[in-house]
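Standup notes, structure subgroup. Blocker cleared on the thymidine-5'-diphosphate input:
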Amino acid sequence: MSTGRFITLEGGEGVGKSTQAAMLADALRARGIDVLLTREPGGTPGAEAIRKLLLDSELEIGARTEALLFAAARADHVEKAIAPALDRGTWVVCDRFIDSSRAYQGGGDDLFDDAIMALHNIGSWGLMPDMTFLLTADNEAVAQRLAARDGDNSDRIGGRSAEYHAAVADRFRTLAVSDPERFACISADGTPGEVHDRIMRAMAPLTGEGG
Ligand SMILES: Nc1ncnc2c1ncn2[C@@H]1O[C@H](COP(=O)(O)OP(=O)(O)O)[C@@H](O)[C@H]1O
Ligand SMILES: Cc1cn([C@H]2C[C@H](O)[C@@H](COP(=O)(O)OP(=O)(O)O)O2)c(=O)[nH]c1=O
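Run returned:
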């Protein structure tokens, strides 16, 4: 049996990843492809429980504990959902994956990319996506989307400083530049349909359709 393809969407909060992940999954299903649409942190009961701890709790969580908890959530998700789906030939569309840990947790004083990847190797066999879409958009447009979606409510990580989020955006860009074969950088400006069309054009190598 052929192995399914593993596609991830990455980028900052509110850029449109969830919207695009759902549109991509629908477009693939319309082509007769079996698709698992999932997200991180989460995607399995164990990982969703860890998500609540990470994002919605009042707990004081240090940088290393935070990195380990994201890696633990991912390990459960990969073992119980992503790897079995790929093995049975299902394509997996995942809203955030390892690159989010590299961008958000991988910039601390003692937690660099090697450490994050070591946790990924231990927890998730080092599984990497076949293709990753990095969505970027004008800051003002994203602020409006977030205000419309969340109002004043942000989670424990989304609510961090503008400097933290600027550093995260820089690290995403660096990751994309360092691996141009896997990453496609997509402008998330414009309507959801326009962004979707850009993603489908970049998907051509995987779907076998003309670009
Ligand atoms: N291209 C777009 N233009 C305008 N609004 C959008 C666009 N894409 C998504 N949205 C809206 O912006 C908000 C954030 O989108 P979402 O897909 O949840 O982003 P993310 O998953 O990256 O946080 C949602 O309310 C969504 O409906
Ligand atoms: C998967 C992952 C997410 N995160 C953060 C990014 C987001 O702030 C939060 C996930 O929240 P979520 O609501 O899913 O993201 P979004 O607002 O983009 O729709 O967790 C990490 O810090 N590391 C990770 O490995």
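Discussed briefly. Residues 63-87 form the longest helix (25 residues).
Next: hand off to the docking folks.
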